[in-house]
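notes to self, project folder thing:

trying the whole complex as one job this time. last attempt i did each chain seperately and stitching them together was a nightmare. two parts in total, labels are on each line so i dont mix them up again. if this works i'll redo the older ones the same way
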Amino acid sequence: MDGVFLNPDPAAVDPMVPRPFRIERRLREVDGCFTLHLKAVDGRPLPYKPGQFNMLYVFGVGEVAISISGDCRDLNTLVHTVREVGTVTRAMAKLKPGDCIGVRGPFGNPWPVEEAYGNDILFVTGTIGLAPLRPLVYEVLNRRDRFGKVVLCYGSRGTHDILYEPLLHQWRGRFDMQVHVTVHSAHAGYRGRVGSVANLVKIARFDPEQTTAYVCRSETMTRPAVQALHDRGVTSDRIYVTLERNMKCGVGFCGHCQMGGSFMCKDGPVYRYADIERIFTVREL
Amino acid sequence: MVQIEGLGRLLAEHPFFRDMPDDVREIVVGCCANAHYRPGEFLFKEGGPADHFYLIRQGEVAVEVHAPGRSEGVVVENIGEGEIIGWSWLVPPYRWTFDARAADQVRAITIDAACLRRKIEGNHELGYELYKRFIPVMGRRISESRLRIVELTTEPGE
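result (full assembly):
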């Protein structure tokens, strides 16, 4: 599949026009989940910040919002980890190295990093939520001396669907990072934790008075995660969460992702919890 | 006597009993014993008589479900230091509903349930103090189980 007919002017910056990217590598992650390594056909990098997303376009099928999950310092490669859940992502799963897809972006409000300087850092996530959080983990580790303790609490369904498991082992092997992993169920004799992610927050070692927490979970599971953080004494102004809605245009035109007065594609998907606490539990919003 | 004093101190240090009035807690001490379990050893098995409950002092206990056709059980939760395991002794017919197996070296205080039930019948204040502590634990675990069902159905998802 060749997408060079798209966006022929390399200087064009129209956010509605996809740029062609070629698939360099395709990695199989856990079941139903894969990672694409993309390179711009025109060679121009696509700088982004942790927490931002792109609209990925499978030609002839459709477009879908996918968070960027690579290291934002590596400008040569754009990395997206995708779960097969719909028509577009299922079509995307069939693409092979050498195929092209369209990319619009980056969009959205990134995870704030500088605001957390001097604080302990707590990442709370589960299943594929680690993918949008990974660029932030990389960035925090790249600036490791600016932070206190760095703690990652991650949960998955079972022992066979722990996303980026080798990377988690690598992080756990560092002397300057705590990595806590829990699963919902396991075989007898499993040496790790079995239970909820909220329980990991209870046992993690950090200073609640000086901690910035980044939560990347489904909205339903963000609530108990935030509650566990509140129980430990982390206040709402130091908790960042992500929200998800059906994003279409990516630039706040179409209103598909509107929540109250906020467009998630441009004001989110990352929010300070204190700023959205009032509307977070409003039903049907 | 020395052992009883030691158990009284261990009981007072455990988070579950820490804030219980001294005179009430002392009634419980007579039903307690120290226990040690090696990794893989069962504390109790599903269907067996729920004649004890356990205060975990050290180590982790895996709560398991036996699954037909599998040589090993499925672990559904880990319970660790500072927590309690076992509430089936409170509810007739006093039978365990899960297996509990030491995930590593476990040191615990076991409390004789029959002894405690007898004492509760004669001392309702003791019963009140125990229920006040058990019900929040049971509520929290039910709530966590419900949330895990939600988690399984909403993560991952569209």
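what i see at first glance: The helical segments of chain A are 87-93, 130-142, 165-172, 197-203, 219-232, 273-280.
need to look closer tmrw
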